[in-house]
Amino acid sequence: MRGHAAWLGLAALALAGPAAAQAVDVWGGGLASACSAAAQGGSSSIRDERVCTQSLETEQLIPLDRAGTYVNRGIIKLHAKRYAEALADFNTAIRYKADLAEAYVNRAAARIGLRQFKDSVSDIDNALILNVKEPEKAYYNRAVAYEYLDDEKDAWLDYNKALQLAPDWPLVKQQLARFTVSHPLDALPTVASPTPEAKPQP
Q: Is-contact 104 24, C-beta < 8 A?
């Protein structure tokens, strides 16, 4: 348990939403940069995926940019719901750059798609330790994983943390609107006042 919360009953009213992806910025104006822009734009097209592949096959990339390009290609596959293929790209990215926090956030998203929820939580924990650039997406993804693990309380806490970090994110507000919360004091039994003892008359 990640701490105590003053909530007794907490129930989700519907299934959790989709996981969030987090692209990696790759600069320089080449194919890797175009791949990065496609991932950030939410592309799921084969054409953009091929741009990423061409970058990986033909461009001289430093390890960070190569890892980032694998992440970005994986995101395009993630958007197309090809979760196993996306997972393979994120695994490769981590082999190139083990401290790339965004690779863990996105691998968590792919694992949610593959229903590997416990592994997804572990990936998010790593991403937060590595100071991921958009932590609200990490908390959001972990909340989704917790919900599928029937841990509604921790899901609620992580959705709220995501909302604190990104108060204008509509998707988080939609997720929180599905929950009902009851305070533990509502469930306490009523205790009758003690009856004063009779005193003997003088």
A: no
- Please identify which residue in the block is written with the tokens 């104006």: 29
Short-list 76, 78, 74, 31, CA closest to 55 = 31
Residue scoring higher pLDDT (181 or 183): 181
181 in helix, strand or coil? strand
| Torsions phi, psi for 180 (to 5 deg) | -120, 140
Q: Which residues of 178-202 are buried (b: 16+ CB within 10 A; e: fewer)?
A: bbeeeeeeeeeeeeeeeeeeeeeee
The pTM of the full predicted model, rounded to 2 decimals, is: 0.80
**Looking at 111-156, which runs of residues are DSSP E strands?**
none
Residue indicated by tokens 């096959």? 57
Q: Is 196 helix (H, G, I), strand (E, B) or coil?
A: coil
What per-residue confidence (pLDDT) applies to 190?
A: 46
Whether the CB-CB separation of 109 and 76 falls below 8 Å is answered with no
Is 150 exposed, middle or buried (CB count within 10 Å of its CB: 0-12, 13-18, 19+)? exposed
Tokens of 51: 């741009």
Buried b (16+ CB within 10 A) or exposed e, 107-126: bbbbbbbeebbebbbbbbeb
Tens-place pLDDT, residues 145-159: 999 999 999 999 999
The residue with tokens 């061409």 is 54
